[in-house]
What does this fold into?
Amino acid sequence: MLTWTLTLVTALAVGQSAQAPTEPTIQKLFEAGRYAMLLERVAAFEAPGPEALYLAGHAARRLSPPDEEQARNWFARLGGDETDYWTFIGRSANATTGEEAAAERLALARQAVQLSPEAFFAQYHLGFVLAESKAYAEAAAVLDKAVTIDPTFAYAYYYAGFSHYQSKRVDLMANQFERFLKLAPEAPERPAIQALMRSIRR
It folds into this structure.
């Protein structure tokens, strides 16, 4: 009986060690800067969810060189009607460049939040657009709210920290950047953030 039990335990241990490691999620691929792999993964999905489409759009824009056409195609697939906040996130992300487009991007992002104020990506996208528009104080407030809705998305902390830094709130910046570094140890921005944090602590 003892021999049989030991054999069973050994077999289970070998089986567990032989299991393939868990594949990183789309979010983790994005946070690690593995944009090409992320895009391949999302393209293979039969019906990617809105979060995957959104991150694929941003990943395409982070490629070197950026693939704007691919990004616009991913964002265009978001939402479906005027009651879905993802529709307005997609339109906001696809607004063309220029001063008028910046105002349009922001207005559409605000519509997404109005439709679903407790949706993480609605708040995150608004904060992202505000930071791009250099409205740093409001961006910081919006992104601080976003991380209370979903405390696991590293780039919400990154843009919150960046916005606090631009608003001269170094104390709040440090808290958000520390969370970013913890959640995204492979992020492309990591060395620059670490250098900034070291310079501030001196």
Q: What stands out?
A: The two ends are 65 Å apart (CA to CA). The chain has twelve helices and no strands.
